[in-house]
TrEMBL record:
Enzyme Commission number(s) from the entry: 3.2.2.9
Organism, as annotated: Paenibacillus oryzae
Keywords associated with the record: Amino-acid biosynthesis, Hydrolase, Methionine biosynthesis
Database matches in NCBIfam families: MTA_SAH-Nsdase, PRK05584.1
Keyword Hydrolase: yes
GO molecular function, one term: methylthioadenosine nucleosidase activity
Enzyme class: hydrolase
Source species taxonomy: Bacteria, Bacillati, Bacillota, Bacilli, Bacillales
Domain Nucleoside phosphorylase: 3-227
Single biological process term from Gene Ontology: L-methionine salvage from S-adenosylmethionine
Name of the protein in its database record: adenosylhomocysteine nucleosidase
GO cellular component terms attached to this protein's record: cytosol
InterPro entries the record matches: MTA_SAH_Nsdase, Nucleoside_phosphorylase_d, Nucleoside_phosphorylase_sf
Length: 230
């Protein structure tokens, strides 16, 4: 029996879930509130992880321990790919932690030493469902690409260029690859859906404040369609 886990990092990112999911029960683990209920006839569990990789990792493990059989991440990100405009959607092909740097010991940028993988591939079925949702809801404004995560808010054109060149990332955010790593460790399917709140440049802080609510709604609409299709 499937139980779909849905995670957002901030209030704005889970607000519409609070409004739309029929909540049945609630518990707290590691200071994080988890809500279980029903959404389009499916069993779901959702929560606000808090910002950053450690919060996202702890939250994901707790959600899997509570029986989640797949994880969808919903939220906003800074665009790295120049094709992306504010409000556009990125569906994760894979996730990697751009702030992992053990290059002095000969490892690649983003490579976690002595691990089988440092880049985590999203579930094929979830990506396909997301692509179908994107084609219907955001025609021409949705791409499948690499999601870069780090404990940094990116707000510089030179950093954007450097991340895009080094990793070929579509967008930068602060949780996806942590969720992805925990899912990989637990052999659980995941996908990250991000709508662009900003372009991670010198205007990022202003755009983030202005567009986070709208971008969060775009991401929620994607999640809604994916849940319907599951
Ligand atoms: N989330 C939204 N915009 C972001 C940015 N520019 N950097 C990191 N995380 C973000």
């Amino acid at each position: 029996n499937q139980k779909i886990g849905i995670i957002g990092a901030m209030n704005e990112e889970i607000e519409l879930l609070h409004q739309q999911v029929k909540k049945a029960s609630h518990f707290v683990k590691a200071g994080i509130s988890f809500y279980e209920g029903h959404f389009y006839g499916k069993d779901v569990i959702f929560c606000k992880s808090g910002v950053g990789k450690v919060n996202a990792a702890v939250c994901t493990q707790a959600m899997l321990d509570a029986g989640a059989t797949s994880i969808l991440f919903t939220g906003v990100a800074g665009a790295l790919d120049p094709k992306l405009a504010i409000g556009d959607i990125v569906i994760s092909s894979s996730c990697i932690q751009h702030d992992v740097d053990v290059t002095p010991l000969g490892f690649k940028r983003g490579e976690i030493p002595y691990q089988a993988r440092s880049e985590y591939v999203a579930d094929k079925t979830l990506v396909r469902l997301a692509q179908e949702a994107g084609e219907n809801l955001f025609t021409g404004r949705c791409l499948v690409g690499k999601v870069l995560s780090g404990d940094q808010f990116i707000a510089s054109r030179s950093v954007v260029d450097e991340l895009y060149r080094t990793f070929g990332g579509a967008c930068a955010e602060m949780e996806g690859a942590a969720v992805a790593q925990v899912c990989d460790m637990n052999e659980t399917p995941f996908v990250v859906i991000r709508s662009m709140s900003d372009k991670a440049d010198g205007s990022a802080h202003v755009n983030f404040a202005e567009f986070t609510i709208q971008a969060s709604e775009h991401s929620f609409l994607m999640i809604q369609e994916i849940v319907k299709g599951l």
